[in-house]
Design brief:
9 helices; 5 strands; 2 domains; mainly alpha; single chain; three-stranded antiparallel sheet; Butyryl-CoA Dehydrogenase, subunit A, domain 3; elongated
Length: about 240
């Protein structure tokens, strides 16, 4: 059976959200509760009766926390890409520092195109892409159209975020395996900054609540429908008055 899609012109304001109906979902265990008195909004210390996790209709203070963690990751992004992530020495020579980009160039130069591409996508493209997407979502919280694109972007960066740590794992693995008299690889300051970028962008993504965009769009749609209905009612009254006249 094929699933029918709602047309773009379909009035989303006619569909009530779970929040409006009094249903609340625990993000920890996935249990859904019917909250008649809406205690999750009125009481700050409302917990899930099943797993005792703190629950609410929407993530509390989410936008403020997202901005804080996002700005922190942006600040750390500069030393993460400018400072060496590792120091390599051969046969007791002076350690040579390598940044993320220089490592990509080095691998590409030696013919390791696949590895160079993976590190570039995971360590350079992905964190920057996540930052831009989060900025876009934060600055477009009041959509005038159904936020389908924003929802897909959010789920996408939520999925790929975990793979950004691949560069940290590579440096840690090489440092553990290649450590002797012939060669040695040690982590640099940049790797810690890069790990901070990945961690803070992941936390910012977790704090962001995509449902807020749908709440705001639903309010916009309901407001427009009310104005349109009032205008239609006014036009009908004027037309009726003109006919009587």
């Amino acid at each position: 059976m094929k699933r029918k899609k709602h047309k773009e012109g379909k009035n989303i304001a006619a569909f009530s959200s779970a929040k409006e109906l009094g249903y609340i979902n625990c993000l920890a265990c996935g249990t859904v509760y019917f909250d008649e008195k809406k205690l999750a909004v009125e009481e700050e210390n409302y917990h899930c009766p099943h797993c005792n996790n703190s629950i609410s209709y929407r993530k509390k203070g989410g936008i403020q926390y997202v901005w804080i963690y996002l700005l922190t990751s942006i600040i750390l992004l500069f030393p993460a890409n400018m400072l060496p992530i590792s120091y390599t020495s051969y046969l007791g020579s002076v350690p040579k520092g390598d940044t993320i980009m220089s490592s990509v160039f080095l691998l590409w130069h030696h013919g390791s195109y696949l590895i160079a591409g993976v590190i570039f996508i995971a360590s350079i493209f992905t964190p920057i892409f996540k930052i831009f997407v989060l900025i876009y979502l934060l600055t477009h919280r009041y959509p005038t159209k159904p936020p389908h694109i924003q929802t897909h972007l959010y789920h996408f960066i939520h999925f790929i975020g975990r793979w950004s740590m691949i560069d940290v794992f590579v440096v840690a693995l090489l440092g553990a395996l290649i450590h002797g008299r012939l060669a040695a690889i040690n982590p640099g300051v940049g790797i810690f900054s890069f790990a901070g970028v990945v961690i803070f962008t992941m936390i910012a993504t977790e704090y962001f609540d995509i449902r807020i965009l749908w709440d705001n769009y639903r309010k916009y749609a309901m407001k427009n429908n009310t104005v349109a209905n009032e205008k239609l009612h006014s036009d009908d009254k004027n037309m009726l008055g003109n006919n009587n006249g």
